[in-house]
Design goal:
2 domains, alpha+beta, 4 strands, four-stranded antiparallel sheet, single chain, 140 residues
């Protein structure tokens, strides 16, 4: 006799339910297939996957115990796109969909752009100050 034949029938119900979920949800569901665009740009969709399952059963008293099992199982899967990873020749960006872009995540994603702008501003200011210094030296 196999080990499975000794298991309660609800185990088979749960096993089938989980196998079906496993067949629907894999790593490619969360991080999608890359999409090649023009200018050597690649876009990769990112999704959030939520799933749940339930199963149960009931044994009814009979003379032959294996004949009176009633059981069932069910599952639900939700796949929600949350972002796109955009890979360009000189840059990589994570573009979050606005529905899922929380304030902390939005702030974190803005840091590189803010740093570029601050660096550009400071470089322009420094160049402007160096220009004034040269003018002052020539005036003396």
């Amino acid at each position: 006799m196999s080990e499975r034949s000794n298991e309660h029938p609800v185990h088979d119900t749960m096993r089938v339910t989980m196998d079906e979920i496993r067949g629907m949800v894999d790593a490619n569901t969360i991080v999608g297939q890359p999409i090649q665009c023009g200018n050597d740009t690649t876009v990769i969709p990112i999704s959030k996957v939520s799933f749940g399952f339930a199963s149960g059963g009931s044994d009814l008293p009979t003379k032959v115990a294996k004949d009176m099992f009633g059981g069932g199982g069910g599952a639900g899967v939700t796949i929600t796109p949350i972002a796109f990873l955009v890979i360009m020749p000189n840059d990589v960006k994570l573009l979050q969909l606005s529905v899922n872009a929380s304030t902390p995540n939005a702030l974190i994603n803005m840091v590189p752009d803010v740093m570029d702008k601050v660096t550009g501003f400071l470089a322009g200011r420094q160049a402007k100050n160096e220009g004034k210094t040269e003018v002052v030296e020539k005036a003396d």
